[in-house]
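ok so dumb question maybe but i'm new to this and my supervisor (M.) told me to 'just get the structure for Glycosyltransferase family 62 protein' and walked off. so i did the thing. is this what she meant?? sequence i used:
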Amino acid sequence: MGSVRSLRRSNPVTVIVGVVLCVVIMVFLFGPSSADIATSQFRRANSASNPLSPPTLPFRKSNDKANGKRIPPPVVHYQMNNVTSTSDPEGNRETVLILTPLARFYQEYWDNLLKLTYPHELITLAFIIPKNREGNAATTALQEQITKTQEGAEKKRFASIIIERQDFDPALVTQTEAERHKMENQKSRRAAMSRARNSLLFTTLGPTTSWVLWLDADIIETPPNLIQDLASHNKPIIVPNCFQRYWDPAAKERQERPYDFNSWQDSEAAQDLAKQMGPDDILLEGYADMATYRTLMAYMADDAGDIHTEVPLDGVGGTALLVKADVHRDGAMFPPFAFYHLIETEGFAKMAKRLGWTATGLPNYKVYHYNE
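this is what came out, is it supposed to look like this??
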């Protein structure tokens, strides 16, 4: 009875204040943060209003109708002069399109992608996957991770995600590392890769895209600030050095070795080889049977060197490649044919150079490839 009397004697105002205070505490503990609210508002403001809007903006279906008929989509105006690609993309809220040709799904690739510190609401992901058994398995695994991410914490969600399936057969039946790197497979494999890259690029590049990051599906380790670091150089085309970690049984410890040999500076020997070739023949890098004597960025790495050191390049690899969207808008694509005896990413660098754009390499800035 004592507790009942105590409650009756309590001031009603005190009880009300106590209840309100409890509610405020609950909202503070379990409600969305101001950052989450800002992110949510940004997503709504930047979502596509109709199915004909750029695919790099998330589409939110509308049921608006007039007199029982669906309202026709509006005419959308874009001021392309307002689209920037600067050395401070995060500060200027510049959108990034990450493009990945995906034949196999690696969980480490996705985990690394989630660790990128660039605001995810400014990132669109797009994948192109072959129509075969491996491609089906990759699509299933990818969709599982996408669902988990896009239904999770809002600040970790990406602006939009696009999955495309190739409308042509892959050049190789198997995608093992040994088979991919056989010299006799290079022209057909890389021609097919070019077609896949071009299909993915032409169907996803929107008028609001500032940067395009080409990131291979087997790149499993990069610095978290990859996008900011590469963009800070403010170069039209920039590529880090791709290495591979492996276990050295002799030294009984993990070591690393160069992996991508497609980033290079040209040589007179390579140019002389090209002069002797037929119109459809291509130069290949990293094979003893075709000594080009080019200067390879893979061998320029200095562990004690500055990660911001820049070198000019004539050819680039595509394992991790940041490109200003304007370079692609100007027409630089990945030739699936012999372009000055070059193909795919190396041909892209040559084509971009013919359009007035230069390529830059960062020999001491490393990303890491999966080791099969």
